[in-house]
Amino acid sequence: MQNPEISPEMRLFSPEGERLYLTAEERRRFLDASALESPSDRMFCHVLHYTGCRPSEALAITSRRVMINDSAIVIHSLKKHKTDQQGRLKQAQFRSVPVPPSLIEHLDLVFGLRSQLRRDLVIDAPLWSMSRPTAYRLVKRVMDRAGIVGAQATGKGLRHGFGVAMVTANPPVPLHVISQLMGHSDSKTTEIYLQVLSEERHSLVMNAWG
């Protein structure tokens, strides 16, 4: 039974049983298929893949939020509650997501991040100027090129794929850390990824029986 504390969007399977997350193989194909896009659009796809952020959150990333020396990207958590239980306005919330140094290097090549730092430029404009619909079309186009079809072929499917990758890593990333990386307001939301562990255990047992 679906946990009533989990919002409708936080599901790994549709009511019809369709998978809503990308597998490791599909995520690899998504990255490979992005190579045919422009350098800027390719980097957008890579940021989604390596940070697990929402497309709308990626569109808000500025040069200032790419931590070159720390190999991390600071994400503005857009889905966090803006008011507390008393109705008071809360400050903007951010999360830092470690990424491969190679991603930082490619972002630098495309957007000239180090050059901006050397010239003491403080750039608060987003790295990508595309609209949300354009970003969603970009993701869909790359999914189609990668041969990824079905309910999982979305930006949300890629985000869920990030969560699945974290929980199935060896060793697995602790749930509270995954919750922080993905910007979940409640760590209970992150527990949906434990469903995949059950699937993995089933596969391991079946493999043991040949």
From TrEMBL:
In terms of Gene3D superfamilies, this protein maps to: Intergrase catalytic core
Alphabetical keyword list: DNA integration, DNA recombination, DNA-binding
Pfam families on file = Phage_integrase
UniProt xrefs under InterPro entries: DNA_brk_join_enz, Integrase-like_cat_sf, Integrase_catalytic, Tyrosine_recombinase_XerCD
Give residue ranges for domain Tyr recombinase: 17-207
| Keyword Transmembrane helix included in the entry's annotation | no
SUPFAM superfamilies membership:
DNA breaking-rejoining enzymes
Which PANTHER family did the record assign? INTEGRASE_RECOMBINASE PROTEIN MJ0367-RELATED (PTHR30349:SF41), PHAGE INTEGRASE-RELATED (PTHR30349)
> Into which family does the record put it?
Belongs to the 'phage' integrase family.
Protein name, please? Integrase
Q: Which species does this protein come from?
A: Shewanella decolorationis S12
